[in-house]
Design a protein that fits this description.
Strand 2 (about 70-75) and strand 3 (about 80-90) form a beta hairpin. The chain is elongated and about 85 Å long. About 35% of the residues lie in helices and about 25% in strands. It has helices spanning about 1-35, 40-45; strands at about 60-65, 70-75, 80-90, 90-95. A four-stranded antiparallel β-sheet has the order 1-2-3-4, with no helix packed on it.
């Protein structure tokens, strides 16, 4: 008797959990489909993060053209390093780095 009651309660609990989870997921999926269509995702531009702007008056700044420049620096451990920048709408964006020292402040070395 107790075993049958336990199985029935467990079945009701699992069924209620599955029904609630399905309802929540379907509601969230419908809300997401209303807000953004798949066609908009294909044409959306990635968000650009300008970050710190290079000092273009520095002697280490080399301007390659009106919209392209390179910041060159000498790292004590890694030697000569360079970072390529491109200007878009008046802001400089780093587009290429010379090595891992340009991405992380320290490079793990054994």
């Amino acid at each position: 008797m107790k075993r049958g009651l336990l199985v029935a309660l467990l079945t009701v609990g699992v069924g209620a959990t599955v029904a609630l989870t399905t309802g929540v997921l379907l509601k969230a999926g419908a809300r997401a489909a209303e807000s953004v269509s798949a066609k908009d995702d294909l044409h959306r531009q990635p968000r650009r993060v300008a970050g710190p702007q290079p000092n273009t008056s520095s002697p280490d700044w080399k301007e390659l053209s009106a919209d392209v420049g390179v910041m060159i620096r000498n790292d004590d451990r890694l030697g000569l390093r360079g970072r390529l920048y491109v200007r878009v709408d008046g802001l400089w964006y780093p587009v290429a780095t010379d090595g891992p020292a340009d991405v992380r402040p320290t490079v793990p070395v054994r």
